[in-house]
What we know:
2-enoyl-CoA Hydratase, Chain A, domain 1; 39% helix; COA_CT_N; COA_CT_C; methylcrotonoyl-CoA carboxylase activity; MCCB/AccD1-like
Amino acid sequence: MTNQPSLPELIDLLNRKYENVKLGGGQKKIDAQHKKGKLTARERISFLIDPDTFFLEIGAFAGDGMYEEEGGCPSGGVIAGIGYISGKQCMIVANDATVKAGAWFPVAAKKNLRAQEIAMENRLPIIYLVDSAGVYLPMQAEVFADKEHFGRIFRNNAQISAMGIVQISAIMGSCVAGGAYLPIMSDEAFIVEGTGSLFLAGPYLVKSSIGEDIDAELLGGAAMHCEISGVTDNKFPDDQSCLDAIKRHIDKIGKPLSAGFDRKAAILPKRNPEEIYTLLPADRLKPYDMLPVLECIADGSELDEYKPDYGKTLLCAYARIDGWAVGIVANQRKMVRSGKGEMQMGGVIYSESADKAARFIMNCNQKKIPLIFFQDVTGFMVGSRAEQGGIVKDGAKMVSAVANSVVPKFTFIVGNSYGAGNYAMCGKAYDPRLLFAWPTAQMAVMSGATAAKTLLQVQTATLKAKGEIITPEAEKALLEEITERYNRELSPYYAAARLWVDGIIDPAETRKIISAGIAAADQAPIEKKFNMGIMQV
């Protein structure tokens, strides 16, 4: 009997948390926006995207449980994602003024950079809906000066423009200090009358710096910038008319190039995607068969397995998902018997599994087929037999194939994601175009139980070295404390808060996300030649 929640219970928690995060800074702050005649960030995005189309949100849980001493920062104070505008996929980035007036927390900068990265990789036009008070000053040291801090956003603005990727900004509220460069480094900058303002220094700073007494509208309002400075291109009376103008501009941009990924008419899986809810055991230690899970995602539930009788702890298969041709690499979680008659543990990568996966990844690059990774991995096999069999060599070959792959990669963390297994299965460090976790995901160097026992041994040894006596009761209490802390860090929400993953999703949404991701990737032709480099064979 397990006390771990079932997948439907975890999805219910996910839905409740998402509904809460959508409130941003809370209903009072939303009402205050409306009183000013402004839409909220989410309302602006909803108005902007085409009706009845899918908005693929990135980083909804950014900042979750962080900055509590500062009052929290839901969604990192920024809403971002891929949506269709006038029939064209775009990256949309909108400051949430209900969260600390849209001020930039450290995670806000990280989220904006992630949104720009996705746009650059996929050559997606970017729409910035600006409404921000600038850097959150109490935390300026964590957001200002480093390479991946706030300034990198403007560097990216310049490089995105040089790449020929369209950027359109709408100043719909405050836009101050260094943040003023973002819209003006875009191709076009619109501003909303009465609510939009843009300046390097606001009225208070101007007064204290040079003694000039001037109000925000005269200093940097819509009329001044459109009629005198020429900094902004056009002004609009309200949010809706400004957003309508963006739609008209996107409607007229030229068609994107194509990477040429193959797509046919989509076929629904024969298995209901919601069957996944019953296929995954609540107890993450229990084995299960990954193949039926994949059949809930693949078109017609059809998979053409590659080397099905070899390296069985990894499933490699060609399939279609929403019509797109894909190559799937997935950890098999049930116990299997090797061709030599040896039992092998599910979720573990053995030498022959790594060898198979490396060959499969090379084949997908040869055939220009996007790769989808489904992680439920505890790591590579250990022990003398594995070492003598060259596990490090075969693991390195798989890691090299993943690292050098030029076709777009997409990763979904189904369950465990431990140690070097995370790397080999295309973790964050290996540049997946999108990386999402299911509510059952756990990410760490090793499992909670293993880590807790290891840390306990270290801590008790340290205490004993100091001459302290550890009673069995104290040792048990210490183990529980370590386990509780480590398990908090295993949570997918801990990872999502820090943008180690792009979000947490209902598994039934996986097909939709893969399809949107490949559609975006198809707009960026592959320019780099696939080369594995030097490797031991």
